[in-house]
Design a protein that fits this description.
Elements: E1 2-6, H1 15-28, E2 33-37, H2 43-47, H3 58-62, E3 73-74, E4 80-83, H4 89-96, H5 105-114, E5 121-125, H6 132-140, E6 143-149, H7 152-171, E7 178-187, H8 192-205, E8 209-215, H9 218-222, H10 230-233, H11 238-253
Parallel strand pairs: 1-5, 1-6, 2-4, 2-5, 6-7, 7-8
Antiparallel strand pairs: 3-4
Helix pairs in contact: 1-11, 5-6
Length: 262
């Protein structure tokens, strides 16, 4: 089981969209995928038709009131499950802020969970902040995946999250977390700005950037309102095609052979 933090402190860059749809595309290929919703806004949770707060979140595990393995819920998709979020998770972040083990508590819980072999990949959908929950996710992760909106402010955002990644490594909380990749999202091929941002970031990060670029696509925005992934809502759309390509590239990077769809 590999833990991957999908993070960017800037909101609206496609973190949840990437967690949900990349997870669905991997599941479509027979890869067992779990989404751990760490954002109190709970958008990943509602994307699968669950009402935030109806089920326990990782908050219950962090406070010792539940075993994290008992929090896993199925989705309508084979091979894809979720640990939901709730608004109370924001309170947990406040509670943990003053505690000495705040940076490594989630890591300890997930290390125990790793042996359950529930999934091949766990995508942690992080909140858009530099707070306790995001730093805890980075301290617990094996890899960091950064969705980067193809706009000027996205360049500033990626610099901040990369800096935080280095701080986590240097703190000793997680010496092994690697920057697995940067995914360009909401790209508009009609504008010079998107092309400029992509070229600038690739010039700095090289092969860390994914070749697959997620386009700005209305279907990707509409799908969550129907509690569907892009594969169910608009399977032939440009968004669905892009996320399927991203899943294929992801598996090649991880030297994984895509499983046959049953």
């Amino acid at each position: 089981m590999k833990f991957i933090a999908i993070a960017n402190q800037k909101g609206g860059v496609g973190k949840t969209t990437t967690a949900v749809n990349l997870g669905a595309c991997l599941a479509e290929r027979g890869v067992r995928t779990l989404i751990l919703d760490l954002d109190p806004q709970a958008n990943s949770t509602s994307s699968f038709g669950y009402t935030p707060g109806e089920h326990d979140s990782v908050y219950a595990a962090l406070t010792g009131d539940a075993d994290i393995a008992d929090l896993v819920l199925p989705t309508q998709y084979k091979n894809l499950s979720i640990i939901p979020s709730e608004q109370d998770l924001a309170g947990c972040e406040i509670e943990m802020a003053s505690e000495g083990d705040r940076l490594i508590r989630l890591k300890g819980i997930l290390e125990d969970f790793r042996h359950s072999n529930v999934a091949d990949y766990v995508f942690m959908d992080c909140p858009p902040s530099l707070g306790v929950m995001m730093t805890s996710a980075l301290a617990a992760a094996d890899e960091l995946l950064i969705p980067l909106q193809c706009e000027y402010f996205g360049l500033e955002g990626v610099a901040k999250i990369v800096d935080l990644h280095e701080q986590i490594r240097n703190s000793g909380a997680d010496l092994n977390v690697i920057l697995e990749g940067i995914v360009f999202t909401m790209a508009d091929s009609r504008t010079n700005l998107s092309t400029s941002v992509i070229n600038d970031v690739r010039g700095v990060f090289g092969d860390v950037t994914y070749q697959t670029v997620i386009p700005r696509n209305i279907s990707l925005s509409e799908a969550p309102s129907f509690s569907q992934t892009i594969l169910e809502y608009a399977p032939s759309s440009a968004g669905a095609t892009a996320y399927r390509q991203l899943a294929e590239e992801f598996l090649k990077r991880h030297a994984a052979v895509p499983a046959a769809v049953e």
